[in-house]
Amino acid sequence: MFITQLTKRDWYRIYKYLWKAQLLPQKIRICVKTVAILRILLAVWVLFPIVLRVLFLLLLRAPLTYYLSYYEIFLIITVSSLLIFYYPLLFWAESRKFSPKVFITLKQGTPLAKLKKIRKRYPTAYITPNQGMFEPPFNSKWTVLNFEDCYLLVAKGKLPYEPKRYFISFAIIRYKDIKHTITFSKQLEPVCERIVNYSDVKLLHEE
Q1: How many CB atoms lie within 10 A of CB 7?
Q2: CA dist., res. 65 & res. 25, Å (int)
């Protein structure tokens, strides 16, 4: 098994790259994109008249502070912040929902007795489903995000017993924890659907 220590900063970056690689469920992406479009429309509706008036004042060489009210300044700051910080706030909110400090990835299917021992040793850890990383859930395959310092493995799809619901399962493995890299890669190939290359990016934060 692989034991990965993670910080809130790590989880923020993990969600960021899950979004970039389009690995979050489609329904979530549609909702997020809809809100993203609405915020742009709101920005245009609120800021466009103010910008026009400011440009007009500049042409007249009039003092801006005299014509811009505190309410308008507040609107400009609020809408601009929404434009800039929308996605960072989204990734931060996701990390608040799920961000265990200790993440344990099992290599193979693990008997219940052994699983109980692992749980006893690491009571606060999140343990990946007991089928193991070389047997992804519900016959899915991993999408592998290949970073400078680690692998991020993601399997996603619909739940077979409830098709309207999606699942997403992932594992984080540092390169330094892999003893035999060639053997590991050969084992991973059959259960790998796609490799996304972020090898120039260091994902995890070292304390």
Answers
A1: 15
A2: 47
